[in-house]
Design goal:
The complex is a heterodimer of chains A (245) and B (257). Chain A has 245 residues and is of the alpha/beta class. Chain A is built from seven helices and nine strands, in the order βββαββαααβαβαββα. Chain B is globular, with a radius of gyration of 19 Å. In chain B, α3 runs antiparallel to α8. Chain B has one domain. The chains are: A alpha/beta (245), B mainly alpha (257). At the A-B interface, β5 and α2 of A face α1, α5 and α12 of B.
Chain lengths: 245, 257
């Protein structure tokens, strides 16, 4: 189905590598992405699945234009904006939740007036209450993710890149967030959803890409790719247990 | 990013940070005035009470030099860490990297306004008078601002490329503190040495110009001032171009190194 829709973001044989660390005597190169080609179609929900450290976050950063590929080409439809929704990072810890939300909205292109108009909704949905005016450094991990998720939900971007964010927070908020996400997904929001949890990806996404060691291993229907991934993870952990024994 | 949005963001980031900073202290914004006054108090104890300097102007001389130098040193030191320290935002949205040091410099401008008024009051209450010569403060402060911007942007990029520069920058500030004629008067040096210090160290020239204007009602060497302004203005343009073209590279360095 999605093949008929226009492409909003195109990655063409993208590779990314960098020198590790600040140590002058370490010649190690990190090859994070290797020849990754992905087409993202308008208003689809694309899942990216893979274990920790296979380059999922870096891939999202390349998609958002935050990092430039060492090789290959990234082509974004002109005039479209993309924002990365990630845990933990993304805040100025000394500022209050309110200030951080205002700043995020404005950095994503909202005017000051628009940004201020989002604030009440963000406060309500995130259920932060009075903590909304407290510095973010005093927040728990769950509160941070609630603020991050709500800010991204309320401020409008063309491509929403979600990095593992639905895997934390309490069950109540997670249910609410999933419902809100589903609302956006069935609308015309384009979403790239990254997770190492197969069931979440399968539930949310139309199409899934499986990433392993910076390479695309499989791409296609959500059910097929996630079940192949689950089997591979099960096999790997079985092998690890046997190796130990 | 449209220019208007950029300017508004800088102003908001600077004011938010000032508010967050003030809320950490019991005395809040009072520190803006209290800190410069305490500096003058420290100078009084050290140079008048202990070392027994009998020159009546010496305290004013120190205060002018030190309080104007702090504008430069604080802005540049804080800005040097701004991109690396802002890696939360750097890793989330593709923002212009100049935004980070720019917001810090703007914060410094607001702070320095309070310090400068305090300094003015100290001068006026000690018998100095405000004359038409003080208009020279306008071009002087503009050039001082350009110098701060260029150094702040450069420092922010260098620390982003290699964290090691942070060490060198704090050492460099200490070096400038002693070589810019804050505790001694460049004009008491023999003419050859004085020319050398003023030519090689723009900070020494700027601090001397503040004193010439505010304490002695004398106009600064405008050609020298404009030369400094043009030189640092050119440096600033080069760094801004670099930061615009290598925005993603700076992000990679901030996130990975």
């Amino acid at each position: 189905m999605s093949e008929h829709k226009p492409i909003i973001l195109e990655l063409n044989e993208v590779s990314l590598s960098y020198h590790a660390g600040g140590k002058a005597f370490d010649h190690g190169m990190h090859h994070v992405l290797k020849d990754v080609s992905i087409n993202l179609y308008e208003s689809e929900t694309l899942g990216i699945i893979g274990r920790n450290g296979v380059g999922k976050t870096t891939l999202l950063r390349v998609m958002a234009g935050i990092l430039a590929p060492t090789k290959g080409r990234v082509k974004m439809e002109p005039g479209k904006s993309a924002s990365l929704l990630t845990l933990g990072l993304g805040f100025k810890p000394d500022l209050s939740g309110r200030d951080n939300a205002l700043l995020s909205a404005m950095l994503q292109g909202s005017t000051q007036k628009q940004a201020i108009s989002f604030l009440d909704d963000i406060k309500d949905f995130s259920e932060l209450g009075d903590s909304f005016n407290e510095p973010v450094k005093n927040y728990s991990a769950g509160m941070r993710s609630r603020l991050a998720f709500t800010t991204a939900l309320m401020t409008h971007v063309d491509v929403l890149l979600i990095d593992e964010i639905l895997s934390v927070g309490d069950a109540h908020f997670r249910g609410k967030a999933l419902a809100a996400m589903q609302g956006r997904i069935t609308g015309d929001q384009t979403v790239v959803f990254v997770s190492h949890m197969a069931d979440q990806v399968e539930k949310m996404c139309d199409r899934v890409i499986w990433l392993e060691h910076g390479k695309v291993v499989a791409e296609g229907d959500a059910k097929e790719v996630t079940s192949a991934y689950t089997q591979s993870v099960a096999l790997a952990s079985k092998a690890a247990i046997e190796h130990q024994a | 990013m449209p220019l208007l949005q950029y300017i508004r963001l800088i102003d908001i980031m600077a004011r938010m940070s000032l508010r967050a900073d003030a809320s950490r202290f019991f005395l809040g914004y009072v520190w803006w005035i209290l800190e410069p006054l305490l500096w003058v108090g420290v100078f009084y104890v050290v140079f008048v009470t202990i070392m027994g300097s009998r020159e009546p102007d010496f305290l004013i001389f120190l205060a002018t030099g030190k309080l104007m130098f702090v504008w430069f040193s604080k802005s540049v030191t804080q800005a040097s860490n701004s991109i690396v320290g802002g890696k939360g935002l750097v890793g989330k949205i593709n923002v212009p990297k100049t935004l980070f040091p720019m917001a810090i410099v703007q914060e410094g401008v607001y702070r320095q306004a309070a310090v400068f008024v305090t300094l003015g009051i100290i001068l006026l209450s000690n018998g100095y008078t405000m004359t038409a010569t003080w208009w020279y403060l306008v071009p002087l402060m503009i050039v001082n601002y350009v110098v701060i911007l260029a150094c702040a942007f450069l420092a922010a990029c260098l620390v982003c490329l290699a964290r090691d520069f942070a060490q060198l920058i704090s050492l460099g500030m200490l070096f400038l503190l002693f070589t810019s004629g804050i505790f001694w008067d460049v004009r008491t040096l023999d003419p050859e040495k004085m020319k050398m210090v003023l030519d090689l160290n723009p900070m020494a020239f700027l601090l001397d110009a503040y004193r010439q204007i505010m304490m002695h009602n004398a106009a600064p060497d405008m050609f020298h001032l404009l030369t400094i302004g043009a030189g640092f203005g050119a440096l600033l343009c080069i760094i801004v171009l670099f930061m615009r073209h290598r925005s993603q590279y700076l992000a990679l360095r901030a996130l990975t190194a």
